[in-house]
């Protein structure tokens, strides 16, 4: 059976052109636009700010003390793994809920209009969502934990 979605219909999202850059690269710099850029909703109150605040809260309240990282121990490694796993789970679940479950995205900014694949032999668990989560938790959590160890040792 032929796919009812042709390529043009399947690859949907096209941003408005020309894509503009931030006003800090314009010369002479428009002071009003630069201030709006930094203190408006697009920069100061963006996803990056949320991630930075969440990272600082995690580092301050949930990560083990730096003195514990001086020696290799499963106690602090496990704690770091759990914190990173929890943050990964929280952000992954939140984005999945926001864009797929709640329907907020409504397929308007998706590059591919098709829903996530289920019962497909192309994926390890026959489910695209489970494969994405496994890849994120397995490789992402381990890699982040190793990076935390290296940063704490000062390497």
What would your notes on this structure say?
By secondary structure, this protein is mainly alpha-helical. It folds into 2 domains: 21-62, no CATH class; 67-155. 54% of the residues lie in helices and 0% in strands. It has 5 helices and no strands. The N and C termini lie far apart (56 Å).
* Annotation field: number of helices: 5
The H-and-E topology, N to C, reads as HHHHH
Global mean pLDDT: 76
Find the count of extended strands (DSSP E, 2+ residues). 0
Beta-strand percentage range: under 5%
Distance between the amino and carboxyl termini: 56 Å
Oligomer: single chain
Structural class: mainly alpha
**How many domains make up the 3D coordinates?**
2
Largest sheet: none
Poorly predicted runs: 1-6
Based on CA atoms alone, the radius of gyration comes out at 21 Å
The share of residues in helices is 40-55%
Which term fits the overall shape? flat
